[in-house]
Amino acid sequence: MSCDVGSKINLEHILYKVGVGTRCGEGKRHPDDGPDTFCSFPWAEMVVEDLCGNKRSCQVPVTELVFGEYECQEQTRYLEVSYTCVAPPPPPPPPPPPKPDCEEDPAAEA
Hints:
Layout: E1 8-18, H1 44-52, H2 64-67, E2 77-86, H3 106-109
Antiparallel strand pairs: 1-2
Region (Disordered): 87-110
GO molecular function: carbohydrate binding
Protein name: Putative latrophilin Cirl-like
């Protein structure tokens, strides 16, 4: 994932999936495909957010080194992530100039 200079990754959707579904493209099936299954992996969002959230670019390898051991060892793993690139908010306005110290009013002495 990557964004243009000056913008950051805003993660919108993260899904960790085991099985099939994208081998032949959306809506198509391969003859060897079985049904998709969802392996229990509640911290997938946290892993991707940690690696990519608010960064200009990142890569998320779907490996045991990154995600830990899998419950579904014999099946292909997929990580679906959708994101947008957003510009950072503008910097805050500068503070107002300091007020001068109090001075004696010459008109008050007369």
